[in-house]
Amino acid sequence: MTQNATDTDARPASAGRRTAARVIGGAIAAAAIGVASFGSISSAATGEDINASMTIIAPAAAGGGWDGVARELQQAQKANGLVNNVQVVNMPGAGGTIALGNVSALDGHPGNMLVGGTGLLAATIQFDSAATLDDVTPLAVIVEEYDVIVVPADSPYETLDDLVAPWREDPKSIPWTGGGSFDQLVVTDLALAAGIDPVDTTYISSDGGGEAIQALLNGTAKAATGGYPDNIDQIEAGRLRALALVAEEPIDGIEIPTAAEQGYDISLTNWRMLAAPAGLSDDDVDGLTQLVLDSVATPEWQDAIERYRWTERVITGDELDTFLEDEEQRIRNLYEEMGL
Asked: For 55-76, how does the pLDDT look when each residue is reduced to its tens digit (9 = 90+)?
């Protein structure tokens, strides 16, 4: 059940109908990238006016989900004059924990924001990283993405019950795949809901959503879970059959029944958040939080939500603290069930 902790959003897909917004060490090479980037960030952070200069740190390579969030925020801030000079720095490695460690060393410097989310929180637990979200200042959750459970279009499994029945009878008979550590967490959650020991489940790690889809189509895996944006084109093209959407409730514009509707109480979402260094004044935290809120209210950001098929969900303040505490315990429990 070993899996690399990575964030694996697809690049923007064509726009679709949306639900209403709900507001409410790694490898030496990776470490070297992190250290090099840290120097430039630290220098940039000496300017204290967040509206004059901002560095948005994506804890992964260009092209992934965290990078997409960072660059869309950069565009929204530049286009609307929210920040005069905003740059994106990519700092990959160890599921995002290298970037987290570097940002945790920037105490008192408000000119930086770190993109993170479910995958980063999971990586701090999986890798038992020295730096955790307690070492930075969470500002806001801004979007979330739902996983979808899929099988090949010619699969004999037409419903989630059809898939779970043989899986429950012989867990090894249904090899699963997915595009990242988050997807493995979803499979684990489903196994528990179905009364299956996650340790007995076969999970084939794939390097991204595209590779996971290929494993499914070539027969290496019989079922997969992955981000809705990663899979919707294959579903609409008739190559994959969607059995369930992993969401708390049905989503307007997504004609896929939820797992909960089918009797499986799973709703773990792949959310994205922004954090700042620790040691900031209340005024700095308020200013950064307002900058995030102003950014996600722009037409440019709303357009990005459509293109990436994200769902807007904004959580700040005390509600954010509670949310993160609950998610950490939930993910920690899932890893324990995996035997990790």
From this structure: 999 999 888 889 999 999 999 9
Say what the pTM is: 0.83
Helix axes 65-79, 282-296, angle to 10 degrees: 90
Question: Tell me, what amino acid is at 203?
Answer: Y
Please give the CATH number for the structural domain made up of 22-144+270-338. Answer: 3.40.190.150
Question: In angstroms, rounded to a whole number, what is the distance separating the alpha carbons of residues 310 and 16?
Answer: 10
Q: Indicate the fold that domain 147-262 takes in CATH.
A: D-Maltodextrin-Binding Protein; domain 2 (3.40.190)
Q: What are the CA-CA distances from residue 51 to residues 46, 70, 81, 128, 135 (Å)? A: 13, 16, 9, 35, 24
Cα end-to-end distance, the chain, whole Å: 8
Confidence grade of residue 337 (pLDDT, cut at 50, 70, 90): very high
State the helix-helix crossing angle for 228-236 and 209-217, rounded to 10 degrees: 40
